[in-house]
Amino acid sequence: MRRSKVFKKSSSLLFSGWEHAVQVKTESLNQLNELEEMRERLEARKLVIGNMSMRCKLATEDAKKQEEMLSTEVRSLLVAGTSLSVARKRLQESNRLLTEERGYIKLKNVQRKLRARQQYMISQVSLLYPVKILVGPAQEQELESYPSSSRLGNYSVSKPINQGSLTILGLHLTMLPFTKMSFFTDKREVQRSATALGYVAHGVSLIASYLQVPLRYPVHLGGSRSYINDYAPSVEPTSSDLLWDTALSVNVKPVEFPLFLEGQDTTRAAYAVFLLNKDIEQLLNFISVKSLGPRHVLANLKELLRTVQSSEFIDT
């Protein structure tokens, strides 16, 4: 009886010790698992911190580069601001001088001298290529007696003289072969018209250079084999074409049209004469004179020469 009690007591002690050992082992395993999870979280945070550190380094480098660029731009702006300030002072001084009576008079005198010089140079063109009116079978009338048109805004109702009655350096400019070219057309008449157009083209180019007016349709001089260039596109531009760089439009190859008929298409030659008259109209508009019409090449040239050689040209 006493032995059985002792056995039971020792068995209970052994069982309780085993339970305690199991509990301790379980707690140890749980702690190990927690430590492993903490280690994994720590490694993940280290990776995140490393990535953030790399990004911060890159951002710092970018900030330094941008700071250098900004400092360069600030220096450029300071230089530009200084130049602008100097230019503004010069402009104010120039405006002050012009607003004064002496400055305005000086400016008008310079303009008159420039106009007088232009008038003299263009008068030499008039002597080189005189445009006259054929009055009789062998008589020619000088420019001054030709009825002239008035300035823009005050037109005179004067009927322009027939194109066939005008000559340039003694040559007629007959437009009939440009519209009705045939096998029976007089070849000498065609050649004379081409020579006359060469004279007109040369005279117009000289006048434009003296007046410092860039011609809308530039002339390629070649005597009786001259050409005129047209930079306008032959077709209407599409919406996609309008998005092209403007540098492309500057490099557009011009289309040449002949100012003569021999071996050429009559339509192209007639269009060349039309463009040449447009250049003369451009010069007339520059000096505020109305054109006599698209079919009066010599008449428009005569009016241009007459107006430039008048006293009104210097006084404007």
TrEMBL record:
- Gene Ontology cellular-component annotations: endosome; lytic vacuole
Q: Name one GO biological process term.
A: SNARE complex assembly
Question: Which terms in the Gene Ontology molecular function aspect does this entry carry?
Answer: SNARE binding
- Protein name listed in UniProt: UV radiation resistance-associated gene protein isoform X2
Instruction: Name the gene that codes for it.
Output: LOC110422177
